[in-house]
Amino acid sequence: MSTPERVDPVQFARLGESVQGRVKAGELQRLAEVSRNPEANVGYELRGYLRKDEKPAIDLAVSGVLTVTCQRCLGEVEIDLHSERTLVFLPAAGLAQVQDEDDDVDYLPREEGVAPLDLVEEEILLALPMAPRHPPGGCEAPAGTQDSGPELH
Ligand SMILES: [Zn+2]
Question: Residue 152 CB: number of other CB atoms within 10 A?
Fold first, then answer.
């Protein structure tokens, strides 16, 4: 099935539905701002299920190669992206009591509709490094910039 614009996460989980597809970086608004290649393809998959504790959950996976700006040389650097996360949907009142111990699990408020592509975009942005760079020694800062010397803390 093609990816619906919005899904009810509780129904999606209860029915064990799944969607997968590919999206171009340029089609996601926030991602388009950091991606230097709007044609870059990211594959995604969302799989709904009920956890053992009966809470509705969606396993989300994204993978692809994105081209972003190296923060040292300001050239293009490719980031090989593979990320997975479990999203658990709780009534808003229950969120405050959650002890978030697992980095790969996110708790979200139960809403009637969430946009799968919003979840995908969020995951891609979380998976990207805050300050992408070529590997050490792989590039140099352009002459006249501050980044060439040792970093001061
Ligand atoms: Zn670089």
Answer: 5
- Report in angstroms the alpha-carbon separations of 89 from 74, 93, 106, 112, 113: 39, 11, 9, 11, 11
Q: At 73, which helix (H) or strand (E)?
A: none
How close is the Cα of 134 to the center of ligand 1, in Å? 4
Yes or no: say if 60 and 108 are a contact pair by the CB < 8 Å rule: no
- Report helix, strand or coil for 9: helix
- Over residues 113-120, the mean pLDDT reads 94
Q: How far is CA 136 from CA 35, 71, 111, in A?
A: 21, 12, 44
Task: Find the 113 Cα to ligand 1 centroid distance in Å.
Answer: 40
Q: What is the mean pLDDT of residues 99-127?
A: 88
Averaged pLDDT of the chain: 90
Q: Are strands 105-109 and 76-90 parallel, antiparallel or unpaired?
A: parallel
Which residue ranges make up each domain of the chain? Answer: 9-134
CA of 132 to the centre of ligand 1 (A): 8
